[in-house]
Amino acid sequence: MNDPVLDQPDIAVYNRGYEMYLGGSKAKGLPLITQAAYAGQPHAISTLIWVNVLDNQIKEALANYDKCTKPAHAWIESESRRLATIRQLPAAHRSQIIDSYKYQISNFKSNAALAFLADNQEATALKMWAEAAKDHGHIESRFYPIFHQKKNDPAAVMTHLSQNFHPEELKSLITDLAEASKDSTGWFRDWSTQSLGVLRKVDLKTMAGTAAFAGAWMASRAYNNYIQDQNEENMEQAVDGFFNWLGDFFG
User: Fold this and answer.
1) Closest CA to 222 of 164, 183, 181
2) At the top level of CATH, which class does the domain 1-138 belong to?
């Protein structure tokens, strides 16, 4: 029996396309993702703009953001009305689902902000990240601007990160950034590599004994493994090993 919450054409198209994309059939999956995105499905828009940025299709990312933002709001309104007709769906659950779609607006806004930054529209990018962070606490929107605004002060970057993110959040964010860098070309690969490189410049000796030291060590180690062999398993082991050794340092 189909889940009535997911029994929606645009969701079905996106899920098929995303499954193909993850399975290595990008040529078949991306057109389906694009179809769903143009219909306004928020997850599809997030994925489409992210893929544009990774593929160095900056103009396409900007165009897709402009094309899809208004349909996304209309899609969410329509979906809210559809979900309200499902009698067995509690109102609280319905609200959670709609909130998850609204969160995706901040997610694709954050992805698009990278494209605006790549297009030398710095003020617009920073404004979009600020909005996404304010509206939904979007974590990447709190994370990405730090490297741009404090790129000439590695210690300030690491101190800010350690004071504003939980260690597990940092671990995930930095690992994801390294992985995305491997999968990208052009502007994002250069930007993400430079951003990770900022962490490598941190003088760990000056940060010893501070919470920032923990994040700096982890970030530097993850970056070194990424640069040396781009081996996901080794990088994860380095990060996990450090946090196991660290114990309750942050407690």
Assistant:
1) 181
2) mainly alpha
